[in-house]
Amino acid sequence: MKVQDKIIVVTGGGNGIGRELVLNLLTRDAKVIAIDISKSALEETVELSGDKKDKLATHIVDITNKAAVEALPNQIISQHGVVDGIINNAGIIQPFVRLKDLDYEAVERVMNVNFYGTLYMTKAFLPHLLTRPEAHITNISSMGGFLPVPGGRPFMGHPRLPSSS
Predict the structure, then answer these.
(1) Residue range 1-29: average pLDDT?
(2) Residue 107 contacts residue 95 (beta carbons within 8 Å)
(3) How much is the pLDDT for 163?
(4) Quick check: is 147 in a domain?
(5) Is residue 148 part of a domain?
(6) What is the mean pLDDT of residues 7-20?
(7) Structural domain contains residue 156
(8) Which of 140, 157, 139 is nearest to 148 (CA)?
(9) Any residues with CB less than 8 A from the CB of 45 and at least 6 apart, and which?
(10) What are the angstrom distances between the C-alpha of 134 and each of 21, 32, 46?
(11) What CA–CA distance (Å, rounded) separates 52 from 85?
């Protein structure tokens, strides 16, 4: 997909890879809607966008909040017209500890952001994207999902192998 003059939504746009995606898309003349849970991180992304600020909009959204995500497409479309693509980039990692030492709250937090956040965004935007002549959904994932490291990914690590942390 050529992104020039397209409207692309990027989750996790307040820092890291998400911020770099936002800034890169702006250099390619896309209009970008950056989503993040952190207002200050989004403000920093806006400042870093320099003379491309006019092509960047931000929305503070917790992607683990299904109701907030379900309301997001209508909010964005009413303000910006259409959405041509979404990049599900927001993600977190669990503490690097053995599975026996990993509490359920940490597991649930990772699953809520990495799995449910991606699912909610995709389900919320899909009906609109299907009406577009061309639209894309991109999901960013950790290499840990493809090549687990013992002790580094407690969901996959062998309990008898030494921890890498």
Answers:
(1) 96
(2) no
(3) 40
(4) no
(5) no
(6) 97
(7) no
(8) 157
(9) 13, 14, 15, 19, 22, 23, 34, 36, 56, 58
(10) 20, 17, 27
(11) 19
Burial status of residue 113 (CB atoms within 10 A of its CB: 0-12, 13-18, 19 or more)? buried
> Is 83 within 8 Å of 129 (Cβ atoms)?
yes
* CA 80 to each of CA 61, 69, 136: distance values in angstroms, whole numbers, following the listed order: 17, 17, 17
10-19, 87-96, 105-114: segment of lowest average pLDDT: 87-96
Q: How many domains does the chain have?
A: 1
Residue 40 lies in a domain: yes
State which amino acid sits at residue 119. Answer: L
| CATH number of the domain bearing residue 53 | 3.40.50.720
pLDDT for the residue 141: 85
Most confident of 116-120, 147-151, 156-160: 116-120
Amino acid at 44: E
pLDDT, residue 93, reads: 81
Q: Give me the pLDDT at residue 86, please.
A: 98
Is-contact 78 84, C-beta < 8 A? no
User: Residue 120 is part of which domain span?
Assistant: 7-141
